[in-house]
Amino acid sequence: MSGEPVTPEAVTPEPPAPEPLWLVAANVVRWRRYGDGGQELRPGTKTYRGGAKVYVVDTYPGMGHEQVSTIGQARTTGRWITIDTGSRHLHTFRAKLVYAPTVLRRAEAIGVRPRSREEAEELAVLLERLAAGYRETHHGAPHPTPCLCHACVVTPG
Predict the structure, then answer these.
(1) Whole-prediction pTM value?
(2) Strands 21-28 and 90-98
(3) What's the half-sphere exposure (Cβ side, CA atoms, 13 Å) at 145?
(4) Which positions ≥6 away from 83 have C-beta within 8 Å?
């Protein structure tokens, strides 16, 4: 090093923020059924806290949208991660215009194609309906009593 002061011209400027994208946002269920016959309850998922907002960036149509790729903040570190998760662990799917540079860069890195608002809204409605069905049929056993899973908290009965 020459010992000369760093000038603003010598600092590499940050790349411009990517263009906003319409993505499907969702929240992780606060409690999920777990274990033999779904008789245990666990908060959130192994990778996401219950209630965390995630962005759905890809689906697997051949598998009936049971698994989706998501971008969100990790439960333990708070760092942004991209991971596949069961759609049954997500709820309140909605179309959202995303401006967050970290989310946009991750989406761009995995090749997410831009969607229109209408496409994102249609996908959100589809995923909400399918996820509710997957939550109901996944364990194939009655819910524990009392049950705090998403289906029971939202529609007590």
Answers:
(1) 0.80
(2) antiparallel
(3) 2
(4) 47, 69, 70, 72
